[in-house]
Write a structure and sequence with these properties.
The chain is an all-alpha fold. It has one domain: HPT domain (Four Helix Bundle (Hemerythrin (Met), subunit A), Up-down Bundle), CATH 1.20.120.160. Helices cover 79% and strands 0% of the residues. The radius of gyration is 15 Å and the shape is elongated. The protein starts with a helix and ends with a helix.
Length: 113
């Protein structure tokens, strides 16, 4: 496999990931929904954090730098909140998720153009 073949495959992967971003953010939002409950268990926090972590890593690898950075902020917020460092303020998480969703929608549209 030559360098051009590798570039072509990365471009295809990037386009595919970009087209899947709107669905990925909806999944992350779904995983975060149970966190609104005061009795959300560690499994719920871990599932949301892992989803944000994966989005951050894959987005960064495939060139979606803004999506990666925002997913990283969401991931860090989830880690802090799971450790009890949120003082009952879940709204900031939803604001950051909304910003991530907007970036995902834009990146998803751009990847199919």
């Amino acid at each position: 496999m030559g360098l051009e073949d590798l570039r072509h495959k990365m471009l295809l992967l990037s386009r595919q990931f970009g087209s899947e971003l709107p669905a990925k953010i909806r999944e992350l939002e779904r995983l975060c929904e149970p966190l609104r409950e005061p009795d959300a268990g560690p499994e719920a926090w871990a599932a949301a954090r892992i989803a944000a972590h994966r989005m951050r890593g894959t987005a960064g690898t495939l060139g979606f730098k803004e999506v990666s950075a925002q997913a990283g902020r969401v991931e860090k917020r989830l880690v802090a909140m799971a450790a009890g460092e949120h003082d009952g303020d879940l709204e900031s998480l939803w604001v950051w998720l909304a910003e991530l969703a907007a970036l995902c929608e834009i990146a998803g549209r751009e990847s199919t153009e």
